[in-house]
Design brief:
By secondary structure, this protein is of the alpha+beta class. It is 44% helix and 20% strand. The chain has a four-stranded antiparallel β-sheet with strand order 4-5-3-6. Helix 1 (2-15) packs antiparallel against helix 2 (32-61) and helix 2 (32-61) crosses helix 3. The longest helix has 30 residues, at 32-61.
């Protein structure tokens, strides 16, 4: 706003500036004062570009120090930034889904003492708690499916250049994926409820 105000004064000064005529042609004289007063507008443009660039880079790479961020970005947020820049065509993930209440109940049994401060951040809380215990083989994300939030335990992720929201190749629930299911959902009630799905464009529905 300050830069805009300065620019208006600079524009008014240029309007009132006399024009010299040399051989019938008009020449605009640019004084040092005019150049200096134009600098705020230049800095404003560079500031906006730097701000947008910083947000995108931080979204893609995150921060190297988890203590500096109370909520690090999940993978789907990184792909959201890439999609906004048209760096990818269509992203799809595969994995086992549980409703938020079932995911909380499962996590409470697998990780005694886990606390959920925010109902919307159930997947993030599970993934963060697992990492704090030294676990690595657990990626979670929240996705809206049929007007219901579900927690996706991701086993596959891929950028598919030929996929559309209506037509795409689904991931296969192969032997490795079934073994993952047995290791993660080692209680019968959750094993039965966990459904393997391929979800296209999850960042459009992610939370």
């Amino acid at each position: 706003m300050v830069s805009t105000l300065v620019a208006l004064f600079q524009w008014k000064a240029e309007i009132d500036h006399p024009i010299s005529h040399v051989a019938g042609e008009g020449l605009m004289k640019l004084s040092r004062r005019s150049v200096i007063m134009a600098l705020p507008v230049v800095f404003l443009v560079y500031g906006i570009i730097a701000f947008v660039t910083g947000i995108v880079l931080y979204s893609v790479w995150g921060t190297s120090n988890d203590a500096l961020s109370s909520q690090p970005f999940n993978d789907y947020i990184k792909w959201t930034s890439a999609a906004q820049l048209n760096l990818v065509d269509m992203w799809k993930v595969g994995g086992y889904t549980l409703s938020y209440p079932d995911a909380k109940a499962w996590a409470s049994r697998r990780f005694p003492g886990i606390e959920f401060d925010n109902e919307v951040l159930v997947p993030y809380t599970i993934e963060r708690h697992n990492k704090s215990l030294g676990g690595k083989n657990l990626r979670c994300m929240g996705v809206m499916l049929d007007e219901e939030l579900v927690c996706v335990f991701v086993t596959h992720s891929e950028d598919d250049e030929t996929a559309t929201r209506q037509r795409f190749d689904e991931f296969e629930e192969d032997a490795d994926v079934k073994l993952y299911k047995k290791q993660v959902f080692n209680w019968r009630e959750f094993y039965k409820k966990a459904v393997f799905m391929t979800i296209i464009d999850p960042y459009d529905k992610g939370y």
